[in-house]
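Our preliminary data section would be incomplete without showing what the modeling component actually yields. Below, a chain of 195 amino acids is followed by its predicted structure, encoded as tokens that our downstream tools consume directly.
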Amino acid sequence: MLSSLNSQYVCTKDASQGGYTWMSKEEKRYVDRAMQVDNAARNAAKAKGEVVIEKSERSRRIDEVLCKWGYEPERGAGAKERANAILCAQAATQVDVVVPVLAAGMRRWRLELIEPLLAEPSIPKDLEGGADPGSPKETKSEEERGIFWDALDYLRSLQNDRQRQVLTAEIVLNFNHSGVSPFHKVVQDLETFLD
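Predicted structure:
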């Protein structure tokens, strides 16, 4: 019963905000501009008496937005992969956006566990000028460094390429599912191991 209530609430809330609440404002603007193209194509088809069956420009643009979350329609990805990409995009939203329970759980995993572990090392301004290496500020900046930076160093040190690729793929998949931006520096560094 809770599943159907959750689904109903999310669908109603999403529809009241124009759909696709998981998109950023720029992405929504990009997708909504396609409606003019679709309307012009429909009107031209009606004038010629043709039936337009091909995929609309708006759908193509939505698929384009979902590509950064792993949806690849060119490679034969279906409805299941599209739903998974939408779930990842929903997990990447801010806390004030209403999403399904599963996406909310993945979002909480990202916000409370993964993002603190992805903290970038910060170098205090005092150290940039060449302070002595044993100062307490330097040890503090090392403590602020997230654990995934250490994992990245470990992956670089691995000699077995296959093992490195498997571990990297698992980490990147976990980041993707929890809504970590594919443009985050650690994710981009990890993806260099997959090439």
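Residues 165 and 193 are 6 Å apart (CA to CA). The mean pLDDT is 76. Preliminary results of this kind motivate Aim 1 of the renewal.
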